[in-house]
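Project channel, design review

CF: Before we commit to the Nonomuraea rubra constructs, I'd like one complete example in the thread so the newer folks can see what an input/output pair looks like. Taking DNA-binding CsgD family transcriptional regulator.
RD: sounds good, go ahead.
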Amino acid sequence: MSALVDPRPPLLNRQRERAVLDDLLADLRAGRGRALMLRGEAGVGKSALLRHILGAAAGMRVVRAAGVESEMELAYAGLHLLVAPLLDGLEGLPGPQRDALGVAFGLRQGDPPDRFMVGLAVLTLLAEAAEERALLCVVDDTQWLDRSSAQVLAFVARRLLAEPVGIVFAAREPGREFQGLAELEVRGLAGPDAHTLLRSVIRFPLDDRIKERILAETNGNPLALLELPRGLSPTQLAGGFGLVEAQAVPQRVEQGFRHRLAALPAETQSLMLVAAAEPTLDAVLIWRAAGLLGIPASAAKDAQADGLLEAGAGVRFRHPLVRSAVYSAASPPQRRAAHRALAEATDRDRDPDRRAWHLAAAAPGPDDEVAAELERSAERAQARGGMAAAAAFLRRAAELTADPGPRSERALAAAQANVMAGSFEAAADLLAMAAAGPLDELQRARVDLVHGQIAFVSSMSSDAPPILARVAKQLEPLDPGLARETYLEAWYAALYAGQFAGGDDLHAISRAARSAPRPAGAPRPSDLLLDGLAVLTTEGRAAAAPLLRRLAAVFAGDEVSLAERRRWSPVAVAATSTLWDEDAWYAIQAREVRYCREAGLLALLVTWVNSMAVYEIWHGDFAAAASLVAEAEAIAAATGSRRSPNGAVMLAAFRGREDESVPLIERVIANARAAGQGVGEQFPHWVAAVLYNGLGRYDEALVMAEVAQVVPEMHISTWALPELIEAAGRTGQTRRAKEALDRLAAATDVGDSDWGQGLYARCRALLSEGEEAERCYREAVERLGRTRFPTELARAHLLYGEWLRREGRRADARTHLRTAYDSFTAIGMQAFAGRAHNELLATGETVRKRAADTPDQLTPQESQIARMARTGLSNSEIGAQLFLSPRTVEYHLGKVFAKLAITSRHQLTQALPDQGHDRP
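CF: and here is what came back for DNA-binding CsgD family transcriptional regulator:
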C-alpha cells in the first residue's frame, strides 16, 4: 500500500504572486482594465494561481479558455472558446465589427476579415459585456493558442484601459505576439514551502540527503514534487530516484503520468485517448466517439478515481501534461482509431473543418479524398481570414497526396499561403517539397517567385531583386501578365535595395521590363505603373511625365480595383511624388489610410500612417504628425511589423532636437545597412541633412545629403538635392552645388508644380547674385506660398532674409526673417527658428525667444483623439478608427478637456491650434 496522498497542488505562500493578481482585481473593481501574463514551466503553479484569481473574482463575470496543442492550426478556435458565452452581444456591435467576428467564427458569409478588425470587435464585445459588472478573462496554456487567436487577444490586451476588463494569460513561454505585456514570472517554490509540499505527499521518514536531492532535481516545481514520488516505495525513493537526471522536470512528470496510465484498464486508456485527441474536450462528441469504439460509460471511473480525468457534464484533464502523456503513450494505430471515431462523430455540415482535421489524423497513408476535404477546409479558412489555418490545411493535404504532380501543386499553394501568413520558414520547407515533384516550367517559375517574395517580404533585403528579375524573365513566354507583375515587384524590391541591388538595379530591371511582351487586352493599372516607372528610369522624367501623370490620375481616382490598390498603391505614391504632384500624393495616402482604418487592415495601415506622417510634417502640422507616429508605433507593436519608423525619424529631425533625433537616425541607418535596404538608409540621411542645415552645421549636412541622393531618379534622392545645394553653397563648394542644381532642374521640369518649381527657384537663388537672386527668391516665396508646405515656405523666407541682410538691406531682411521666425516657432522647427533668431539679432532687432503655440501638454494619442473629436466624430467612430474602445476614447477626452481647461467638444475648435484642415 502506498504511503502517498493525492491532494490538489496547494497554493503555498505565493504572497508576491497573489498580491499582483489581487491588485489586478482591485483595478477591475475600480473600472480600470489590465492584462497580465503568468509565465513559467509546466507544473510550476500557474494553474493554482489561476484558481486563486478565479476564486477571488467574486461578483465579476468570468470567461475562460485554454489553448490546445492539437488545435493550434484551427483559426480563431481558442478565441471562439473564450468569447462564446458573450456572443449574445454580437448583433449589438457596429456593422463592420459584427461582420468581421461573424465571418471569423463561421457564423456568416463574407470577405476574409482582417484579424485586427476581429480584434476591435472582441474589444468592443468585452467592453459591452463589462458594462454592468467587471469581466475577468482567463486563458491558460497560451503557448498552444492558434496564431489568429493569439494575435487578436494580444491586440485586445494592449488596449485595455478605461473598461473594467481584465485578461490573465498563463503560458510556459509566451509567443512573440505577447511581447511587451506585463509579465509575472512564476518560479518554483522556495525552500521552506517546497519542504512543506514534499512532506504533504510523503508520509514516511526520508533520508535528508535523498530529500535534498529530490528538492534540487525538482527545483521547487510543485507538480513534480507531487507526482514524481507517486507510487514509489521508501526503498525505491532512497535508492533509485533521479536516475533520469538528463530529462527536464516536465518530461519526467509526464513520464510519471504514463506509468499511472499504464496501470489503468484498457477501456479507460482508450476513453482517455479519445478525449486527448479532441481539442475542445466536447463531452457529447467524446462520448459519441467512445460509443462508436464500444467503450462503456463506466470506463471513466478508474481515471476519475486516480485523479487524472474529470468526466461529467464536461471533460477536463488534471493537467495538460496528462493529456500529452495519454496521446504520446498511444501507438499510431490507436491514435488513428481515436481520430477516425471522432471524425465519424463530428457533424459533416456543422463542423466540416474539424472533421477534415480528424480524418487527416486518422489516415494511415496518402488519401486523395481526405486531401480534397482539406483543400476545401483551406478555402473556408482563408475566407474567414485564417491564413495560418489555410496554410496548415494545405500542407497536410500535400502530405496526403499520392500523385507527385498534384502533391507539388498543393505544396506550392501551401507555401504561398504561408508567405501570406508570415511563416517564411514553413514556406521554404514547402517549396522544397514542391520542387521534389515533377514541375512544369510555369510551376518551377512560381516556386522561384515565392522564393523571391519571401526574400522581399521577410526583410526587404537586396536578395530579392535578382530572384524576382530572373523569375520575371522565365515567366515572359509562359504568362506575360504575371511576368509584368513580377517585373513590377522586382522594380519595387530594387528601389528598396538601392545601392545594394548590385547588377539587378532599377536600370537593368526597367530595361528588361520594357522589352517584355505585353498581355492582350487593355492595360491594367499595374501595366501603367510599370510602363511609367520603367521609362522614368531608362529615359528620364521628360519622357516619362505623360505616363506618370496618367497613372497618378488613375490611382488617385476610382478606376483601380481594391485588390490592385492594396498591392500597388505604395509604388504609385513614389511615382506621384516624382511628379511633385502634392494633390495626387495626398489623395492616394488619405484614401488608403481611411480604407485601412475602416477595414481594420493594420499590417497595411502602419505603412500608410507612416507615409501620412511624412506628409503632415512637411505640411507643418507636427501635432497631427506626432499622433500618426504614435499610432504607427502602436500598430507596429501589435503586429510585429519591422517597417522603418520614417515618421518618427523625420519628425525628430524637423523639430531640430539633436539629442532626440541623432540616436534614432543612427539606429535606423544601422538597421537598414544590415538588412541591405538602400532606401531605408537614404531616408534617415536626408532628414539628417535637414537637421544639420537647420543647426547651421553645413559640413555635416553636406555629408548626409551626398549619401541620400545616391540614386538621382527617385523621390528621396531628389528631396535631398535642396539640402545638398544649401550645404554646398554655404561651405563654398560652388561646383558641387551647381551640379546638384542641374539635377534638380531636370527633376522639377516635369510640369508647373508650385512645389517643385518653388524649391528649384529657392535653390537657384542661393547660387545667383543681384537682381537674378532677388527674382528667384520672390518666385520661391510666391510659389511655395501656394502649396500646402509652410515648412518650405518658411525656409524660403529665411534664405531670402539672410541674403537681404548680407546685401545690407536690414529693414527688408527683418520682414522676411520675422516671418520665418514666427512660422518656424508656430510649427515647432526649433533648429531653424534658432537660425532665424540669430539672423534677426544680426540685423539689430531685439528678439525674445518664445515657445511654439502647439499644445505640447497633450500626448500624441490625446492630440489625435481631440482632433478627430473636433471634426464631429463620435467616441465609437473614433474608437473604430484608432482601435480603441469607446470608453477608452471617453477617458482620453476627459484628460484632454482637463489639460485644455475646457468642458465640451464644441470648445476644441478654439482650444486646438489649426495648422490646416483635419485629416484622417
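RD: helpful, thanks. The first strand starts at residue 34 and ends at 39.
CF: The chain has 46 helices and seven strands.
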